[in-house]
Amino acid sequence: MAVDLPKTPPFAIRARLLTPLAAGGTRHEPDGILVVDERGRIAFVGPAGDASPESLAAALDLRPWVLLPGMVDTHAHLPQLPNAGSGFALDLLTWLDQVTFPTERSWSDPAVAERLAPAIFRAFAAAGTTTVLGYGTVHAAAMDVAFAAAERHGIRAILGKVMMDRGTYDPIIEPSTILERSLRESADLAARWHGADDGRLGYAVTPRFAVSCSTDMLRESASLARATGAWWQTHVSEDPGEIAEVGRLFPEARDYVDVYDRAGGLGERTVLAHAIHLSERELGRLVDSGTRVAHCPASNLFIGAGVMPLARYLDAGLSVALGSDVSGGPEASIFSVMRVGAEAQMARRSLVGDEGPILDPFDWLRMGTLAGARVLGLDAVIGSLEEGKEADLIAVDPSLVAALPDTPADDDPRDLMSRLIFRAHPGMVQGAWVRGRRLDGPARR
Ligand SMILES: [Zn+2]
């Protein structure tokens, strides 16, 4: 199908619609219409038969394509994307040393970021991701370049310069000056980018993880996040070797979560990646403090860090969404993350006897979209195709996930979503929009 997809709002699209709903449940319209107003907000969503005659006449007919909310990736490392798929089964600390740090070091030259950042945002959009919470590197100039690239591209992005004052990979910075310099650079970047383009861009204060940060850096970075209203993101409890190292470095802390708790780092604006091996005490503390977790199953199995007891966490009321963790995870696609996550949970059931309801394809769709928006505190703005929200959405061609060519797409929406997860095709996302503005990246048709 050769069509010119709308580039800017206003527009209307007629297609199959599938979305989680804020009030619970999932909406499926086999023949739906979605109207985006001139400000890029969803003005109408419903059956084509209920649309105004003008909207129906003006609508671009994309059937049998499917409109979904854009995917929300709550944990990714932008500069690592070129490594995606390499370094299988190195343990976390070895993988950082051999694969990741050399790549991140290359961003000491902002020209490298200038060249790569636009392609990285196109790759996220091509995978169907319209919002990303991402890490940069320790280099402030490269981070500024990455923000400027996100501003031009149109993706919704919350980004942060990595902070590390222990075992840092940038040999140029005098160690005794790192804390002060890193805080100043983070504050400058937050002042410049946090809330830019009417909130499309945001800043996340980003201490890498406890192993790379002194007590002072953790505490000062958390207080910077509070003072600026920015997010605070880091990693927790990913790998047994890492957890042992944190115990050695912070003997005064009760456990890994307590290291961040003592620093003032827990709360509703905090997103912790991984959190695989939490004790009951740690889980309870994250739930009580409203701290959010980015679940990155594709990364966890690629590195061999472990399998999250997701059912236990959800039962406890933890706010969990999905993250690609590229390039700990081998793909930017949240659809791929859903597949590995679903398979890993099935493995837990048979290997360790997890019980409770099995998460179905609609549950995974919700976790990749609306739950992601909720983890970021943006669920009133994005995450589902509902009137009044900003038009962050994707158009998917279901023929690419069919088992045989020229077979009609599944009538049953659960079956359709199941195929989008378990047979995700790298070219299936045909269009992606943020606030009704089309993003470069998805296949041009
Ligand atoms: Zn990570």
Keywords:
7-stranded mixed sheet; binds zinc ion; single chain; alpha/beta; 445 residues; 16 helices; 9-stranded parallel sheet; 38% helix; 16 strands
Verbal overview:
This protein is an alpha/beta fold and 445 residues long. It is built from 16 helices and 16 strands. Strands 5, 6, 7, 8, 9, 10, 11, 12 and 13 form a 9-stranded parallel β-sheet that branches. It is globular and about 65 Å long. The structure holds zinc ion. Zinc ion is lined by residues 75, 77, 235, 273, 325, 328.
Structure described in brief:
38% of the residues lie in helices and 22% in strands.
The total of helices stands at 16
Average of the residue pLDDT scores: 95
First-residue to last-residue Cα separation: 7 Å
CA radius of gyration = 21 Å
Shape summary: globular
Bound molecules: zinc ion
Decide which structural class fits the backbone: alpha/beta
**Low-confidence parts:** none
Percent strand? 15-25%
Helical content stands at 25-40%
> How many individual β-strands?
16
Biggest β-sheet description? 9 strands, parallel
What is the secondary structure topology, with strand pairs?
Elements: E1 11-20, E2 26-36, E3 42-47, H1 53-58, E4 60-69, E5 71-77, H2 92-105, H3 110-126, E6 129-135, H4 140-153, E7 156-160, E8 162-163, H5 178-193, H6 196-199, E9 201-207, H7 215-228, E10 231-236, H8 240-249, H9 256-262, E11 270-274, H10 280-289, E12 292-295, H11 297-303, H12 310-316, E13 319-322, H13 334-352, H14 361-368, H15 370-375, E14 393-396, H16 413-422, E15 429-434, E16 437-438
Parallel strand pairs: 1-4, 5-6, 6-7, 7-9, 8-9, 9-10, 10-11, 11-12, 12-13
Antiparallel strand pairs: 1-2, 2-3, 4-14, 14-15, 15-16
The protein binds zinc ion (ZN).
Zinc ion binds next to strand 5.
